[in-house]
Amino acid sequence: MNSPERFHLIHSAGGRPVAHGWWSDEAVARSKFVLWVGQNGSVVGTRIALDDEAEARTLAVWPDPE
Asked: In whole angstroms, what is the distance from residue 9 CA to residue 17 CA?
């Protein structure tokens, strides 16, 4: 069973939080990540991260830290 607050998506700009959301399904959270990058990726200083809170790891970050 998936935790209702397992996958955390956070959008920050200029180092300050702008929006965040929680999903229990990884596929849904990843699709939201792609959507948020498309909607907000052109904002200067934007960072969008998707974390798996149950495993304490980051699944995706935009822009890619290279």
From this structure: 11
